[in-house]
Amino acid sequence: MTTVTSPLAGRVIGLAAVPDPVFSGSMVGPGTAVDPLPEPTVAVAPVDGIIVSLHPHAFVVVDPLGHGVLTHLGIDTVQLNGDGFELVAAKGDTVRRGDPVVRWDPAAVVRAGKSAVCPVVALEATADALSDVLMDSAVRSGDTLFNWI
C-alpha cells in the first residue's frame, strides 16, 4: 500500500470540484484536489520515489511499487510558461515524501486569471484502488490524502 500525502497546505475539495473536466471527470485517474493557501509555498513530494516527469506546473513521482502520482499546480497553468514557478528538484531525482519539488505562489496564479486548485492523482489507477480519500478537509503539507492499495 502507498500512502499519498498532501504536497501543500490548504483545503481538500475533491476532484469533482476541480474547474477542469479532464480532472473533475477523473480522466487522468482518481485522487483528490487541494485548494492551496494563497501564499508563496513549496510543493513537496507526496510519496517516496523518483521524479519521472517535471514541469514548472506539474510533476510525477513514481514510488517503489510503480505507482505514479501526479501533482498538478493549478489549472491551465501550463499557459503561464513557467512564470511564477521555480523548480527546486530535477527530473530523475530520488525524493522522500516531503522533499521540496517546486516553489510557487498560488495567489500569483489567481492574479494571472488561473485557478490555483491542485489535483493530486493516482495515474493508471481505478477508483476502487484508492481508500480513505479526503474530499473536504483542511490539510497541512504532509497530511494523508488517500491510500493506494
What does this molecule look like?
The model has no long low-confidence stretch (mean pLDDT 97). This protein has a single domain, classed as Glucose Permease (Domain IIA) (Distorted Sandwich). It has two helices and 14 strands. The longest helix is centred in the C-terminal third of the chain and has 6 residues, at 106-111. By secondary structure, the protein is mainly beta. It is globular. Strand 5 (49-55) and strand 6 form a beta hairpin. The chain has helices at 21-24, 106-111; strands at residues 2-5, 10-12, 31-36, 41-44, 49-55, 58-62, 68-72, 85-87, 94-95, 100-104, 118-122, 130-131, 137-139, 144-148. Pfam families: PTS_EIIA_1. One of its GO terms (biological process) is phosphoenolpyruvate-dependent sugar phosphotransferase system.
Write the layout of secondary structure elements.
Elements: E1 2-5, E2 10-12, H1 21-24, E3 31-36, E4 41-44, E5 49-55, E6 58-62, E7 68-72, E8 85-87, E9 94-95, E10 100-104, H2 106-111, E11 118-122, E12 130-131, E13 137-139, E14 144-148
Antiparallel strand pairs: 1-14, 2-3, 2-13, 3-11, 4-10, 5-6, 5-9, 6-7, 7-11, 8-10, 12-14
Q: What's this, in brief?
A:
With 149 residues, the protein is mainly beta. It is 7% helix and 40% strand.
